[in-house]
């Protein structure tokens, strides 16, 4: 498939494309353990894997979808970086894997039909968006999920050390982060428990809400790393 770049890239898309992915940075090759656990704990053993459809928003270099495709699932992904999607497509092609991987802005209406996906994954992509944009995208996630489908939502917590080191930007994002493990990533949003639950109102059932936190003891500049893991089901 050919690469189609978004007409008006967002600041987040621009930062990741120009300063990270196009420079060969963070082109991850292997899946994150939290995503692997979510898929293996959630998929139905009575349904063929080839008929189990997984979408990842902000899929980056496709490392999570690469794993899912190798395991026989039907995968789709969208990311604002043409460099990341190109890397993923080449890897899929070289290994004989199939996937619908697209360049696009996931803060816009998702270019997928309604009620089709069994799972949607967001591993720290929406955390780069403001609260209003994230809420709209989560509404789109619900639209494309099949009834009973599940959404894996992983974002940064307001207890993260980097949250207090920047300056407030638009719609709740923190800009100019100067300390902690997230320096150089760009504008980020850090969620409280109340804000997490506010993302899932009518039409959702939150099944899991976990707060994960650890302290870097050897490098005090990193201090506390904190994030949320939520699983919500479309009802």
Key terms for this structure?
9 strands, alpha/beta, two-stranded antiparallel ribbon, 6 helices, 7-stranded mixed sheet, 26% helix, 235 residues
Commentary on this structure:
With 235 residues, this protein is an alpha/beta fold. Helix content is 26%, strand content 26%. The chain has six helices and nine strands, in the order ααβαβαββαβββαββ. The strands form two sheets. Strands 3-2-1-4-5-9-8 form a seven-stranded mixed sheet. A two-stranded antiparallel ribbon has the order 6-7. α5 links the parallel β4 and β5. The longest helix has 14 residues. It starts with 10 loop residues before the first helix and ends with a strand. The N terminus is likely disordered.
Number of strands: 9
Shape type: globular
The tally of helices reads: 6
Q: What is the N-to-C order of secondary-structure elements (H for helix, E for strand)?
A: HHEHEHEEHEEEHEE
Low-confidence stretches: 1-9
Structural class: alpha/beta
Q: Biggest sheet, in brief?
A: 7 strands, mixed
Mean pLDDT, to the nearest integer, reads 91
| Percent helix range | 25-40%
Distance between the termini: 34 Å
Strand content: 25-35%
Regarding quaternary structure, how should these chains be classified?
A: single chain
Strand order of the largest sheet: 3-2-1-4-5-9-8
Based on CA atoms alone, the radius of gyration comes out at 17 Å
């Amino acid at each position: 498939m050919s690469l189609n770049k978004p007409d008006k890239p967002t600041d987040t898309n621009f930062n990741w494309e120009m300063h990270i992915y196009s420079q060969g940075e963070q082109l991850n090759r292997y899946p994150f353990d939290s995503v692997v656990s979510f898929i293996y704990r959630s998929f139905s053993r009575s349904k063929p894997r080839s008929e189990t459809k997984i979408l990842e928003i902000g899929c980056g270099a496709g490392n999570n979808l690469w794993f899912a495709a190798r395991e026989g699932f039907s995968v789709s992904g969208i990311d604002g970086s043409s460099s990341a999607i190109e890397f993923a497509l080449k890897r899929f092609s070289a290994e004989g894997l199939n996937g619908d991987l697209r360049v696009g802005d996931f803060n816009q209406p998702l270019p997928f039909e309604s009620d089709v996906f069994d799972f949607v994954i967001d591993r720290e992509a929406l955390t780069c968006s403001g609260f209003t944009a994230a809420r709209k995208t989560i509404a789109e996630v619900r639209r494309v999920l099949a009834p009973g489908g599940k959404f894996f939502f992983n974002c940064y917590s307001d207890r993260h050390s980097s949250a207090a080191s920047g300056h407030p930007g638009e719609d709740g994002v923190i800009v100019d982060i100067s300390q902690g493990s997230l320096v150089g990533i760009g504008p980020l949003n850090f969620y409280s428990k109340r804000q997490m639950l506010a993302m899932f109102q009518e039409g959702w059932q939150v099944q899991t809400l976990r707060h994960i936190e650890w302290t870097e003891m050897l490098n005090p500049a990193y201090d506390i790393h904190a994030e949320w893991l939520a699983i919500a089901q479309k009802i």
